[in-house]
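Trying the structure run again after the queue cleared.
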Amino acid sequence: MSFTDDLWKQIDPIYDAILRHPFLNQMADGTLSRERFVFYMKQDALYLQEFSKALAIAGAKAPATDQMLFYVNSAHTCAVVERALHEGYFKDFGVTLDVGRAPSNFAYSSYLLATAANSSYRVAIAGLLPCFWIYREVGEELVKRASAGLSANPYAKWIETYSSEEFSASVNKAIAFVDLAAAEANDVERAEMAQAFDYASRLEWAFWDAAWRLETWPPHEVSA
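Done. Tokens:
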């Protein structure tokens, strides 16, 4: 087994919880409420602004040109291509990006930015990997669940984006770069990479759960 095979095995319970989450179950059958999906899309648009910065930081730290180009180009894709997906839904639903980051979004994006800025390149890309890999696996799973009625599913564009061959190819590159980094790391750094992957995977679950709960910040005045 490769290093990333071990990483994926380590998060089996987290990924199972993601697949069982009612947010994704209802997205697959098209019954997810407009309110929850709009909440998710607004938060995701804000998250991708920060995720693209973390990708760019990782690219700046990359030890080789092909790795640098991958993360810099991925940052561009987040800022331009995936932004277009969000803006298409905003137009369809008649909404604008008029919110701030919810707590789970703040925690996830801040964690990735801090890891990219303060940790090694190897640890940074391990922390970034779940957003690639889990989204691919979820996209492919939702295609299977929704295949009979995907054309009528209001969330079909989202499902098709993350189950596409183009996106899968970028995920494969991200996986390969983490395996390459792990092969060049010592035991301590590999442990740090595994921890970053685990934390980010848990925050992936939290992000969808936040949308399901329509998560808000506590009030300014909170009694003890």
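The chain is about 80% helix and 0% strand. Worth checking whether this holds up in the mutant runs.
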